[in-house]
Amino acid sequence: MPNLASAKKRLRQSAKRTLRNQIAKTRIKTETKKVLAGEASLGAAQSVIDRAAAKGIIHKNAAARRKSRLAKRLVAKA
Predict the structure, then answer these.
(1) How many Å apart are CA 51 and CA 65, to the nearest integer?
(2) Is pTM beyond 0.85 here?
(3) pLDDT tens digit string along 41-73?
């Protein structure tokens, strides 16, 4: 455990940020599964992915890759 006040604060901030990022990444996976199951539209999943990229949770190229692969899987499924 950290001893300095600033280190304690950084630990609290890091824990909060990690939780927020984890929630966003889980949301991406959930939306992707919903699209493949036919419960949600491709646009909804792309929106969630774009928002995560805009917030810096995933890299913009990773977001583009995820959207591209999802669209490709959807076309192959149809």
Answers:
(1) 14
(2) yes
(3) 999 999 999 999 999 999 999 999 999 999 999
Rounded CA separation 74/70 (Å): 6
pLDDT at residue 78 tops 80: no
Beta carbons of 52 and 63 less than 8 angstroms apart: yes
Question: Are residues 44 and 67 in contact, defined by beta-carbon separation less than 8 angstroms?
Answer: no
Measured distance CA(14)–CA(57) in Å, rounded: 14
User: What DSSP character marks residue 65?
Assistant: H
Phi and psi at residue 7, in whole multiples of 5°? -70, -35
Q: How many CA within 13 A on the CB side of residue 47?
A: 6
DSSP 38: T
**Residue 6 identity (one-letter amino acid):** S
CATH topology for the 5-77 domain? Methane Monooxygenase Hydroxylase; Chain G, domain 1 (1.20.58)
